[in-house]
Each structure stands twice: as structure tokens, then as C-alpha cells.
Amino acid sequence: MRILLTNDDGIYAPGLRALRKELLPLGNVTVVAPATEQSAAGHSVTLLHPLLVTEVYEDETTDPHKFIGWAVEGRPADCVKLALLELLPDPPDVIISGLNAGSNAGINVLYSGTVAAAIEGAFYRRTAIACSLEYDKKITDWPAAARYARQVVEQILARKPETGSLFNVNIPVLEHGPIRGIRVVPQNVTPYTEAYDRRINPRGRTYFWSGTDFHCPEPQPNTDVAALNEQFITVTPLQFDMTDHVHLAAMREWNWKLGG
To answer: Which pLDDT belongs to residue 235?
Structure first.
């Protein structure tokens, strides 16, 4: 099996390295990931600057001559586009994005570069899986989280999903207790609590830092955010067709007019 591995935390992120190690027994893993962190980049792509790429090899403590993939000075979606259109000699059987530092549940799906990379893969009719880990401290057990992610990936692929299928996987905070199981749940869509830190620079100009208190105080029951809070791994099938088909049918019956 040919696996394309990407992320939005950057090619040297511990989550990507841990997940790559777990995926190696499943097949041939090639990494194409951003050269630097691109968190919350969403589905942006680079148009006005060249996309520089650099070959990346294993570190010197393992096998410094083993090629693992490319670092791209661009966005997560750029990485997948380049991989599929230019860098890979053969198309991958599956595209896996992660393991992200921080959950991508609820409305985070809209901001996430991790999920955007998976969506880009689904655009190109590849099975794509985004994997993220919710955490609340700087140091976490990435190898354990990667093992959970690999188990979920294996079970998804064993079902031979339709080409272009898209899945979002989230793992709860490991330090909060044992994992209780896996739940297939919809995306939570209730608002999050967030704020900005207002400051004044030495020249008297006002500026703002995005606050770190970004959470969902009242998640809908039986959704990804609620299940994560209950120590379940969540799996949510996604789609990128944003058309509201219910309103589409109703609006076709409107009496549309143009003046002049």
C-alpha cells in the first residue's frame, strides 16, 4: 500500500514522526509536509510565491541516508497538490494527515490545515483521513497516540471505503484517563468561546493576540466534541460539497426578477 503522509504542524513535528513510524508496517510511506508550522491555515493555497521544496532524510541517529519525503515551503493543501501532481511517481492508495497537535473537532474543522490537506486529497479522488490529538500540556505521549491513530486507520481501510472518501479522526487527551472506545459521531456546530488579548505597543499602536482559551462550553450531545470530552476516539465522515440542498430546492421556486 502506498501512503502519503502530511500535516500542518510541519515536517519535523513529533506527531508526524510518531505516526510515520506506526504506518511503516502498513506499506510505503512518503512524507510531503510543510517546512514550517501552518496551524489554522485552513484550505489556503499559494499563488503569488514559488513553492520551494527540499528533500528530507532520516536523522543521523537512525539512518541519515534514508529518504522520507519533501518539505514544502507552502500550505498543507499545497503539499498534497504538489505530491499528487509533481512529486510522487505513483498515486497513493491513501492520504493521511496528522498526527495534529490539538483536536480538530467541531468548528475547528473549518480552520484546520490538517483537515484541509485531507480534503485536498479527497478532491483528487483519494481516500483521505485526518488524525488529531487533543492535549492540554506541552509534553504528551505521541507514540501512544500514534498507535491509536494507526488502529483507527487500519479499521477504516479494512472496510475498503469508496474512492474519495474523507474521514476525520480525533483522539482525546490521553492524560485524562483510559480511552473508552471509538464512536462514529457528527461534527459539533455550536459556537466556541474565544477572545483576543488587547495590547499597546511601545509606539502607542493597538494590536491583538488571539487568546488561548478556545473551547466549546456547551457541545451538542452525541457529537465529536462531546464524545472527546467523554474519552472516546471520534470518527466523523466528512464531505466538501457545501451546497445546502434543502434550501437549493426551495429557492428554485422563488420568483426571481431583474430590474432595468
So the answer is: 98
Tell me the chain's radius of gyration from C-alpha atoms: 20
Return the amino acid letter for 28.
N
Residue with cell string 503539499: 79
Chain-centroid distance, C-alpha 140: 18
Percent helix, strand and coil across the chain, each to the nearest 5: 30, 25, 45
The closest alpha carbon to 88, from 3, 1, 160, belongs to: 3
Among candidate residues 163, 67, 73, 96, the one with its CA nearest the CA of residue 124: 163
Residue 13: what residue type? A
- Closest alpha carbon to 215 in 234, 190, 182: 190
Tens of pLDDT, residues 9-55: 999 999 999 999 999 999 999 999 999 999 888 999 999 999 999 99
Q: Which domains, from first to last, does the chain contain? A: 2-189+218-251 (3.40.1210.10)
Whole-angstrom distance, CA of residue 35 vs CA of residue 37? 7
* Contact call for residues 104 and 43 (beta carbons, < 8 A): no
Question: Residue 126 has what DSSP assignment?
Answer: -
Alpha helices in the chain (DSSP H): 14-23, 76-82, 108-111, 113-123, 142-158, 224-229, 245-251
Residues of the chain with pLDDT below 50 are none
Other CB atoms within a 10 A radius of the CB of residue 160 amount to 9
**Residue 176 DSSP class:** G
8 A C-beta contact, residue 191 and residue 110? no
Which residue in 15, 195, 202 sits closest to 101, CA to CA? 15
